[in-house]
Specification:
The protein has 16 helices and six strands. It is mainly α and about 425 residues long. The strands form three sheets. It has a two-stranded antiparallel sheet. A two-stranded antiparallel ribbon has the order 3-4. About 10% of the residues have low confidence.
Length: about 425
């Protein structure tokens, strides 16, 4: 019987002749030499295809599906963004989401100087903060004041705050003396002389009494000697303060600035007092809406031309010293002894009732064209004003104001 061929002989025969023999790759080699020489077996075709073998269409289908998914998500997200930007109030109402009325945090880093004027109460401060972009809403700050104990007191001055502050953060800053800006001062349009002196005092550290004392001799500053006081001649603007200047020097700086602006506007020296008196009434009556300045000037000019009394509550209030209300009483309007009472006395009052800015002076010099003889502010919160040519139209506007004041939500503006 012939010897049985070895495993090495069989493998050598297949290698040299190229003949095919099925070898179970899972079967163990029959010797250590065979184990060393056994070639590595390729993975089955099915496993190579699952790994993305060339020619397999399935990876492409997966990528197409993923791209389609992204497109759908993008379209849905774009539609959602468009809907939110254009229909936010309706969406909030649908889902019962309450619209926020307050920011969070201590601001967005953009600094703003807020001016607290003499006599400002909580409602004035709340509105100022909204107007300057500090707080999100009037209600957020005012409602906070109502529940804060003890009730906050506000000192006149300029305060460094930031835009988009929470009501609490804004209140904290206004109560912090370190927030007061002392290197500069901002005098708002329409501020009276006494209010201006308080702002100058807060910024400079000079007592108010020093300003009022030296201002008593208004002619020494180049103001007409026949003027009742220095009011109207202190130009409202932002000033950088030199620490070396005393009260007299600071007042002179403001007066000189006003004279310079009057010269730039072409106002003759002999006409300055009349123009400032007219402009100050326009400034005070216009409130926060600069677009109304020209119309208000036209109402007063039409009245002067027609021989009517101006009947400005702002002038009456200045004469009584009551700046806490926009309303006057029957007795106050009937008091002809008040030289600023334009209900009882014809023409312009004896002098300016505040310090007008450039826009108000321009309006006094060139009033808007129009037939109006009356105006009334029908929303004391935002200053919306109705102008009328007839008494009937005016009475309808007064009725709107009365209805607005009858709303308890507006009570603090109608005291």
């Amino acid at each position: 019987m012939a010897d049985e061929p070895s495993w090495d002989d069989i493998f050598k025969d297949h290698s040299s002749t190229g003949a095919r023999r099925t070898i179970d790759p899972t079967a163990p080699p029959r010797s250590r030499r065979a184990l060393r020489e056994q070639p590595a077996q390729p993975e089955p075709r099915q496993r190579r295809e699952k790994r993305g073998h060339e020619g397999d269409p399935r990876p492409k289908r997966r990528w197409a599906g993923f791209v389609a998914f992204l497109v759908i998500v993008g379209l849905f997200g774009g539609a959602a963004t468009y809907g939110w930007l254009n229909y936010e109030p309706q969406i909030r109402e649908l889902f019962g989401w309450e619209l926020p009325n307050d920011y969070e945090g201590s601001g967005n880093g953009e600094e703003v100087v807020v001016v607290i004027e003499s006599g400002h109460i909580g409602s004035d401060v709340a509105q100022t903060l909204v107007d300057e972009g500090v707080t999100l809403s009037y209600e957020a700050f005012y409602d906070l004041l109502l529940v804060t104990e003890p009730a906050p007191e506000f000192q006149p001055g300029n305060y460094a705050l930031q835009k988009e502050m929470s009501a609490q953060a804004a209140l904290d800053r206004l109560q912090d003396p370190a927030s007061r800006v002392t290197s500069s001062v901002t005098i708002p349009e329409g501020t009276t002389a006494n209010g201006t002196f308080e702002l100058l005092s807060a910024a400079s550290g000079i007592p108010v009494e020093e300003f009022t004392t030296v201002a008593g001799d208004h002619a020494s500053f180049g103001v007409p000697a026949d003027a009742p006081n220095i009011d109207g001649w202190l130009f409202p603007a932002t000033y950088e303060l030199d620490p070396s200047l005393d009260a007299r020097a600071l007042i002179q700086m403001l007066v000189d600035t006003m004279k310079q602006r009057l010269d730039e506007l072409g106002v003759p020296e002999g006409d300055r007092q009349r123009v400032l008196t007219f402009a100050a009434i326009v400034q005070r009556e216009a409130g926060p809406n600069p677009d109304d300045l020209g119309k208000i000037a036209r109402v007063f000019q039409n009245r002067l031309d027609a021989g009517w009394n101006l009947e400005s509550d702002a002038t009456v209030a200045y004469g009584t010293g009551n700046f806490s209300s926009v309303f006057t009483t029957d007795a106050e309007r009937a008091d002809a002894s008040n030289p600023y009472n334009t209900y009882a006395n014809p023409g312009l009052p004896v002098g300016p009732i505040g310090n007008p800015g450039v826009a108000a002076i321009q309006a006094a010099l060139a009033p808007a064209e129009g037939p109006w003889f009356f105006f009334v502010t029908v929303d004391l919160r935002d200053g919306t004003t109705v102008f009328s040519a007839t008494i009937e139209e005016h009475e309808a506007g007064v009725a709107r104001l009365q209805a607005w004041c009858a709303d308890e939500a507006n009570a603090e503006f109608c005291g």
